[in-house]
Design a protein that fits this description.
The complex is a heterodimer of chains A (about 130) and B (about 110).
Chain A lengths: L2 H5 L8 H7 L4 H33 L1 H10 L3 H28 L6 H26 L1
Helix pairs in contact in A: 3-4, 3-5, 3-6, 5-6
Chain B lengths: L10 H29 L5 H9 L1 H29 L3 H26 L2
Classes of the chains: A mainly alpha (about 130), B mainly alpha (about 110).
Amino acid sequence: MSSAAAKKPRPKYLSLSALLFEIRLPAPAWVSGLHRLSGALLFFPFAAWLLYLLDTSLASEQGYNHVRSYLSMPLAKLGLLVFIWAYAHHFCAGIRFLFLDLNKGIDLPQARMTSYIVFAASILLTLFFGWRIW
Amino acid sequence: MVKRIVVGAHYGLGSWLAQRITAVIIAVYSVILLVMFMTGRPISYGVWRDLFSQGWMRVATLVVAVAVAWHAWVGVRDIVMDYAKHDGLRLGLEVITLLVLAGYLGWTVQILWR
């Protein structure tokens, strides 16, 4: 046992501020956590919302126009933006996980770099498609 | 080289594999659809309706919907198993998840073959 570990006061009681500000998760942990969060959001409510939009827009021309005007409302666009981010992050992080499963990019520097690439790519995709729909 | 059996008692590995395979199917469909929308004619009701009135598009979309449901089942079940420690609560959440996914699939069929 190293002496540095022995000197630390144990047990360490965590306050809320410690959880929020002291403990910093590494980038790959954020990719993983957000992959889970975005997946949960896509399962509900976004899958139901998309099915509703597909249903209404395919039912009739009137329904299609209704969906178009509905999606031009700022709140609906905001929802669409969150959906785009969730899909983009889930997509990019998912591809990273597929490569990790193949033992590609598992060294720490690479794993960190690909994590930042996932964040950047999903934000850029969100900005691009957000700009396209706005 | 480890021999991996993906059926029988090691069904966890089967689920894991199914989630990866369905992920690839969903990703390919998403990219194809996106490229079609960005390079094709501007979307109007006619273009939209004609796209989903074609047999191959309906079948492809249904196949992907099944892949999404399968993928989501493995993923949501993982989340439920991690956070819902009480057996009854976990079982209840898993049943609700299955019902929701079955509902989504039924709705998808209804939309595609109206």
